[in-house]
Write a structure and sequence with these properties.
Layout lengths: L3 E5 L3 H12 L5 E5 L2 H11 L3 E5 L7 H10 L6 E5 L4 H9 L2 E6 L4 H16 L11 H33 L4 H34 L4 H53 L7
Parallel strand pairs: 1-2, 1-3, 3-4, 4-5
Helix pairs in contact: 2-3, 6-7, 6-8, 7-8
């Protein structure tokens, strides 16, 4: 019997993409809702195997939907999607039963991995406190966190270099837009560093914070994925812009040639 997945998303094109390109090809039965209230009602009526919900929705937000389902006793695994994720929002989603947290834009592979983890979690409950990671596992998480921070720093340098290259080839409007994106990324990165520092301090006091560190690593991986996707998109835009400028130059040359034919220049007297 195929598993049922409820998509709660206010943008129709996003629903169509997830349903037709990710879920239905794998045999999932798809249920949809365009606002949080409808999503809540369908979740209770249909009791799907999985909920994929956007964070910001009309009427009820994604976290409010999960909270009300928890209060009513519905234990349905969920995946939360958002354009602007924060560490605190991710932790809140996980506390409300979300099994994964995807930063838009995400790849099809990332969604498949999230779905797989969410559905497996139903049959594989989280470890009890007595089974919490020991100090060796906590140290490994810290090393992974340091490695991710190094990768993020490298991505920022690459983005800075790309910005300088774009400044030499495109107009001021495009440069300003890219600069705004870069500033937003820097704010996200600073916020992540602050929260991670707080998590490390808490970890030093008690091993019970190991789960919080694991969640921080997961969120930072999502953030890194967003950076990588944005770099690809910028490179694609640069290619398209370069091609458009080349075609415009060709068209201007043709127009000048036509003018020369239609309106011959007067000879100097």
């Amino acid at each position: 019997m195929s598993k049922k997945v409820l998509i709660i998303e206010d943008r129709r094109e996003n629903i169509v993409f997830i349903a037709n390109n990710i879920l239905r090809p794998k045999g999932y039965e798809v249920i949809t809702a365009r606002d949080g209230q409808t999503g809540l009602e369908k979740a209770q009526a249909e009791q799907p195997d999985l909920i994929i919900t956007d964070l910001k929705l009309p009427q009820l937000g994604g976290l409010e939907v999960l909270e009300q389902l928890n209060e009513k006793g519905y234990n349905i695994p969920a995946i939360v999607m958002t354009f602007h994720g924060t560490e605190e929002t991710a932790k809140q989603a996980l506390r409300l039963g979300a099994k994964d947290y995807l930063i838009k834009p995400f790849t099809i592979e990332e969604m498949y991995e999230a779905i797989d983890r969410a559905l497996k979690s139903v049959t594989s409950p989280l470890p009890q406190p007595e089974d919490s990671p020991d100090k060796a596992e906590t140290a490994q998480l810290g090393q992974e966190l340091s490695r991710l921070k190094g990768i993020l720093a490298t991505r920022e340098r690459q983005l800075e270099q790309m910005g300088k290259q774009l400044a030499n080839s495109i107009g001021k409007t495009e440069v300003a837009e890219i600069a705004q994106r870069a500033a937003a990324w820097e704010e996200d990165y600073a916020r992540l560093n602050s929260v991670l520092a707080q998590t490390k301090d808490a970890l030093a006091k008690t091993d019970g914070q190991a789960q919080a560190l694991a969640e921080a690593v997961m969120v930072q991986k999502k953030q890194l994925g967003k950076y990588q996707q944005e770099m690809k998109r910028m490179a694609h835009e640069l290619h398209n812009l370069s091609e458009a400028m080349r075609l415009m130059a060709q068209d201007m040359e043709h127009q000048i040639e036509r003018l020369d034919v239609l309106i011959p220049r007067q000879k100097e007297s």
